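tool_call: predict_structure(chain=1)
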Amino acid sequence: MIWHSESARQRQTERNRGYSLLEMLVVLTIIAMIAALTPAAYRNIRPGIELRSTSGEVAALLRKARNNAIRTGRDTVVTFDLDQNMAAFGNEEDSLAWSDAVKITAVIAESERVDSNRGNIRFFGNGGSTGGKLHLRTSKLAYDVSVDWLLGTVEVKKSDA
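tool_result:
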């Protein structure tokens, strides 16, 4: 049989008592500081995430229009309305809206310009297009979505703001 002295039992019970109030306050203070910094960090990251997402969605809409033109053998026109922050072709399912935080400028064929803030990118049944370049930007970041006029391919690249 093993006998423990009274002091060894006391030390073991003191270790099993838990955390002190001071230790708990330190942990809560650290958690509060992290929670206070999170919204500020998110506010700085959010525009970049939104811009990247919007440029990907614009590219996806253009690729879908190109595929539709090739599949049907008929022209498919994607209309961009920069005043309304919208782009669409076909029906409502094939439309896209973006937030006011993302600004877009378009370089398109003169024949496809409707007015100063509206224009089209046309995809032909053979896969080609009228081509164009969309410059999407926020205050700090920018992306270019380019449509090749010969092949109709769509490419997204990070750009200078």
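agent: The beta strands are 76-81, 86-88, 95-97, 103-108, 113-115, 118-123, 132-137, 142-147, 154-159. Proceeding to next step.
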